[in-house]
Amino acid sequence: MVRILSPNSQPIYSSSSSSSLSWSAPTPTPMTTSTSMTETVNGSNLFNISGYSLLKGIGVGKCVASNTFTAGGYSWEIYFYPDGKNEQDNATYVSLFIVLASEGTDVRALFELKLLDQSGKERHKVHNQFDSGPYTIRSLGSMWGYSHFFKRTDLETSDYLKDDCLKVYFRVGVVRSYTEGPEIYSIAVPPSNVGQNLGHLFETGKGTDVNFEVDGETFAAYSEGHRSGPSQWDNEGGSKSRGRRSSWRDNGGGSGSRGTRLSRRRTSMLSRRRTQGPSTPSNEDENNQLGQFLAEQRKLLFGVFFFFLFLFLFFCFFVFCLKASDSLNSLDQA
């Protein structure tokens, strides 16, 4: 039985029920992260075109092709048209293209085309699309380049043609987008020490403003109107408190409130401990021990029963053998 005493020694709250205060740590919250990445995968090829003078006159729309090279997981080839690609140009211009030579759909790529200056002056003819943005190659056989790449008469008298040879450099950068992740991070929540702190407060009695009498023994606690009392007494050396300290005992004195649910749980737990004792086993443990004891007794009884049954059967067999022996002796004498 737990009693909370008012100043006039009259109980204002009593309880004989038991309750427990439990707390479980929150489950760590998983957090995922992902990153969208866009990059270019580059590849290049140097295409040497020898015997340029022999290629003239092969016909409009006909070309010579480079070996296949790879960039960004796709195959590419360089096409050079000595007499141009289109009929309406009448072989006035040479044409130069790069072609997708493998299966692909909507391949986004950047291109750099460079006709090399072979005089050593490094005045190359450059068409660079890396600065302007990617071009979309729709499917196999689609191409990017220039129909009017260079006027034939100007090309044949330039430093780009040397020893009847042209050198063409092509660089391809295939644009690829992908997402990295997700990577799972776990936010570790430290274990709570609320129970330890509350136990320390109850042991020291700092900031208490109400006392409980449990079976003749008095315990200090904190009332509902004095929630911040313990922290203020710890921080300011016990000089200040929001609430008013009081002691509820049998002989009265002081004032206070009815107490919080935490105080009620505390007193109920103390009452249960005093009633049960420090080492009283639970009902479940008692049932388990009783069951084990009954099982052992049952085994012992079965053992004794079978032992005596064996002795009885052995005795019967012995008597039977004696009677059978007597019968045989009687027959022999007859």
TrEMBL record:
**Disordered: annotated segments:** 1-38, 222-287
Q: What is this protein called?
A: MATH domain-containing protein
Which residue range or ranges hold the MATH domain? 42-172
Q: Which GO terms describe its biological process?
A: protein ubiquitination
Query: Superkingdom of this entry's organism?
Result: Eukaryota
Q: Which positions, given as ranges, span the membrane?
A: 300-322
Q: Which PANTHER family match?
A: BTB/POZ AND MATH DOMAIN-CONTAINING PROTEIN 1, OS07G0655300 PROTEIN
- Which UniProt keyword terms apply here? Membrane, Transmembrane, Transmembrane helix
Q: Which Pfam families match?
A: MATH_2 (PF22486)
Q: Where is the composition biased (Basic residues)?
A: 261-275
Q: Does the keyword Methyltransferase apply?
A: no
Pathway field of the UniProt record reads: Protein modification; protein ubiquitination
